[in-house]
């Protein structure tokens, strides 16, 4: 790849969002994943980076010059690197916005307004634009301008406290950026809805997506907790068991075994325990959960492997799953049948978008862009610039391309 326009990736002609152009000002996780979801569905997504690149470009491991972390969130996009403080560059970007269908940004409120690219300015120039702002706490309210990343939101939104309560454990950081991912899916849905509404009304919209609100909305225990639930729940993921089998492998079970103990007794051949006073009624089983757990855990150690466990419990309606890592999952026949993994560059693998359509070929559409890789082609195509003007902007530092070997 490179900045040579002849080396540019072809325009997308398939997918439900084919013909939709997206200007993506986002960085890190929530916004970039939203942009990738649109790209995977056929949209032409232009990633606009400042001269200081998206920080995730440096996240290890690097494969073929790309961060695998960055690639997962930016697959299939085109990329430009622009100094919005340069008046000509900012005006050129606004020209791109005027011809776009969607703009995504995840700065704190007001940042893009400093460059004349805020929602009011953009919608005045392009009333059909769907302008999506993703932020920690929303575009208004007393927390609007707080610095925010997903780990902070996990604390503020009640997720960490909820997880600790449900698992009867201390509050611990959450390693996965749930709030970012949840906001990305919500933003993608909201954008698609706004595009559909635009077809009826002819008008765009300013969408306000909050990581904190997405976290609260996506927490399955929000309703119970706000309605008075306290202590550990007897249902849900925290009530499941993780079994260790004879060969040292592990399997995860469905739900609370106090709810399914009769099925476990049948699978284990322990019918005599049905008449045990500790396990007769559901309330009794909940009170003696520790004994139930120990009975199942000790029995599991006598089962040689996962295949044997599945063969034993499946006839009794019990769902189990092998605890495995992603690399192992990618090598399963199921993953290959579903086309779970894309590999746009040798050794650089990421997940395809997780749905299929009978109408379109849906999936990752290519590698991520190198920093500033498409400066010339994008500014000539979408901002009415000549190659000579692009070269002049590059010479004075308004545009930038990654040095050889760096993305």
Automatic annotation (TrEMBL):
Pfam families: CoA_transf_3. This is CoA transferase. One of its GO terms (molecular function) is transferase activity. It comes from the Bacteria. Transmembrane segments: none annotated. The lineage of its organism: Bacteria, Bacillati, Actinomycetota, Acidimicrobiia, Acidimicrobiales. Residues 356-377 are annotated as: Disordered. Keywords: Transferase.
């Amino acid at each position: 790849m490179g900045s040579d326009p002849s080396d540019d990736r072809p325009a997308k002609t398939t997918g439900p969002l084919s013909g939709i152009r997206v200007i993506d000002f986002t960085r890190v996780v929530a916004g970039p994943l939203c942009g990738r979801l649109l790209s995977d569905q056929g949209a032409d997504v232009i990633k606009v980076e400042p001269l200081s690149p998206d920080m995730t470009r440096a996240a290890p491991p690097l494969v073929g010059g790309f961060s695998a972390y960055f690639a997962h969130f930016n697959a299939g996009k085109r990329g430009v690197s622009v100094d919005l403080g340069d008046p000509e560059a900012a005006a050129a970007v606004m020209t791109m916005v005027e011809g776009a269908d969607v703009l995504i940004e995840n700065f704190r409120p007001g940042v893009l307004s400093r460059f004349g690219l805020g929602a009011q300015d953009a919608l005045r120039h392009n009333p059909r634009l769907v302008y999506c702002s993703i932020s920690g706490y929303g575009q208004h309210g007393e927390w609007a301008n707080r610095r925010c990343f997903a780990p902070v939101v996990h604390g503020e939104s009640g997720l960490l406290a909820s997880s600790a309560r449900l698992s009867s454990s201390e509050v611990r950081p959450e390693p996965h950026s749930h709030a970012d991912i949840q906001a990305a899916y919500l933003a993608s849905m909201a954008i698609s809805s706004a595009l559909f509404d635009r077809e009826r009304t002819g008008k765009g919209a300013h969408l306000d997506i909050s990581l904190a609100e997405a976290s609260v909305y996506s927490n399955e225990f929000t309703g119970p907790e706000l309605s008075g639930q306290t202590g550990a729940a007897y249902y849900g993921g925290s009530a499941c068991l993780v079994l260790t089998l004879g060969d040292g492998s592990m399997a995860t079970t469905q739900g609370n075994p106090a709810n399914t103990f009769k099925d476990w007794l049948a699978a284990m051949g322990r019918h005599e325990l049905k008449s045990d006073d500790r396990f007769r009624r559901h309330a009794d089983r909940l009170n003696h959960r520790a004994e139930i757990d120990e009975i199942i855990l000790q029995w599991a150690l006598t089962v040689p492997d996962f295949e044997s466990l599945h063969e034993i419990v499946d006839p009794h309606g019990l769902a189990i799953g092998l605890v495995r890592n992603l690399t192992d999952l990618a090598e399963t026949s199921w993953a290959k049948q579903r086309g779970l993994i894309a590999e746009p560059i040798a050794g650089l693998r990421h997940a395809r978008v997780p749905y299929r359509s009978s109408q379109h070929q849906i999936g990752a559409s290519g590698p991520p862009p190198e920093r500033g890789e498409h400066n010339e082609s994008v500014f000539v195509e979408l901002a009415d610039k000549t190659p000579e003007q692009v070269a002049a902007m590059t010479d004075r530092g308004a545009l930038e391309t990654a040095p050889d070997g760096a993305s």
